[in-house]
Design a protein that fits this description.
The structure is a single chain. This protein has 120 residues and is an all-alpha fold. The chain has a single domain (9-119), classed as de novo design (two linked rop proteins) (Up-down Bundle), CATH 1.20.1440. It is 74% helix and 0% strand. The protein has four helices and no strands. The protein has helices at 12-28, 39-58, 63-89, 95-119. Helix 1 packs antiparallel against helix 2 and helix 2 (39-58) runs antiparallel to helix 3 (63-89). The longest helix has 27 residues, at 63-89. The model has no long low-confidence stretch (mean pLDDT 94).
Amino acid sequence: MMTTIKTYRDILVWQKAMLLVNKIYKVTSNFPDTETFVLTSQLRRSAISIPSTIAESYGKRSPEDYLKLLNIALGSLFEFQTQIEIALNQEYLNKQIFDLIYEDSRDIERMLTNLIRKLN
């Protein structure tokens, strides 16, 4: 039996990206106060951008616009991956937490890449 996607909320990659946002909010709440308007803010914004852009892409009527926005979501994900590595290097994240978050982001990356590939 084939399932039908009714809204963007039914898209698994959007659901996983939303979970990633929740995780990053939790871990960045322990970042130093000096990072509030720098790395904490950037990490949260890039994380938020991923599911937000996936949701926006779902509302587009042309395949070109849909594909363009999925690529933007992928770019936000790469930005996010870079920022969590910076957080690891600054010792704001321990290696275990980094590995968990990074692997979650890699799952999202694979899913987005596959979706983009199917649309091309």
